[in-house]
Amino acid sequence: MAVEIERKFLPAGDGWRGLAAGTHYVQGYLAADRACTVRVRLAGASAFLTVKGHGDGLARPEFEYPIPATDAAQLLDLCPLPLVEKTRFRIPLNGLVWEVDEFAGNNSGLVLIEVELASPDQPLEKPDWVGEEVSTDPRYSNAMLARYPYWTWAGS
Amino acid sequence: MAVEIERKFLPAGDGWRGLAAGTHYVQGYLAADRACTVRVRLAGASAFLTVKGHGDGLARPEFEYPIPATDAAQLLDLCPLPLVEKTRFRIPLNGLVWEVDEFAGNNSGLVLIEVELASPDQPLEKPDWVGEEVSTDPRYSNAMLARYPYWTWAGS
Asked: Could you tell me the superkingdom of the organism this chain comes from (chains A, B) (predicted)?
């Protein structure tokens, strides 16, 4: 088991564009309830089956297993629709990796930026294209975006 | 992906005892709904994360991945209680492997016998300790036994 400690932000402008090549992600959820999420992710030519528990604050237990991409395609067929589609840009900067997710499909128009930390209180020097923090807003979890896509957030 | 083709029986007597050494299994379900089940299984010193879809009749799509036993112990903590506990006796006979599951805990008193086949219509020579077939009785799926354990079947 790993512990995932992650902070999440909205972008401030698009200064992140062009800093990294993107990888196409398709993911779905075999389970997404109070106790855990079970995610199937096809990431370019790689694929993963990932179980995340619910942790305290920014930290969550995470169990990730690489699986054959052909399995992932079939497992995605077992997931409720819609699937979450996005392009991920991994941008290394000062010892951290900023992951910019530009969503597509039902979440088109949404860009989220995540950064994984070694501890919840690790000091963070944000690049100027990183804006408002949304770490504690449940709408921005990918499991919630599968169920309540961005385009349904009318008026928000 | 594999396709699991399985028939399931109640025992007829205990002629199966002593034919094989048993392995202790503990398993739980991260998901168990109409689309799929996600099972965590600790089998002796081995452990597996398994996704099963719902197939037609006796055949189900199955995706099984070995995982570290230490992960399995932590993943079982994320599963709803009660967990399913049993001792499995694997008995090879005429080219088939009969798996006798003697349940414990909340399913104590229940013995189920499973056999995996290459095709649903494969001819089957049953040993005399194999009794009534319950392949299509949903109560006997392990995912259902987790939710509605054998001891709750009062009067059945």
From this structure: Bacteria
